[in-house]
Structure formats: C-alpha cells, structure tokens
Design brief:
The protein is an all-alpha fold and 75 residues long. Helix content is 71%, strand content 0%. The protein is built from four helices and no strands. Helix 3 (28-48) runs antiparallel to helix 4 (52-74).
Length: 75
C-alpha cells in the first residue's frame, strides 16, 4: 500500500546559501526585502526559461521563498 504522509517543507536556508550565511542573520525587514526580490527574480527566470527541469527547480525555490515570506509576515 501507499503511505500517505506529507513531505516536510524545506526552508529557504536549504536552497539558498546566501540567505543561509548572510541574510538570515539580518533584521526581519532586510530578510523580507530579500525574499520579495528573490520571488520577483525567480518569476522572471521561470517565464524566460524553456528548460522543464530548470523550471521545476525554480518553482520549488519560488514556493519556498513565498513560504519563508509568509512566516516572516506572520511574526
């Protein structure tokens, strides 16, 4: 039988070394601005890419950045 469980969502520090090493240590306002900028840049990259695998990775990163932004806005 198939197991029905949710795969835990990874946070932005798993995908983005700059965020992990530098941005995550900055005040929340700076982290929010970085995530907003990252979301914009990733959206542009997705719309300009023709590579399906690259788009899939970018969409995963986009969703992770959006989730990180939601968590910060909830604080």
């Amino acid at each position: 039988m198939f197991s029905c469980y949710k795969i835990p969502k990874k946070n932005l520090t798993h995908f983005d070394n700059l965020y992990k090493d530098v941005i995550s240590k900055l005040p929340i306002e700076n982290r929010i601005k970085y995530c907003e900028s990252l979301i914009y840049r990733i959206s542009e990259d997705i719309s300009n890419s023709n590579n399906i695998l690259k788009k899939r990775k970018l969409k995963r990163l986009l969703n992770t950045a959006k989730n990180e932004l939601k968590k910060m806005n909830a604080l």
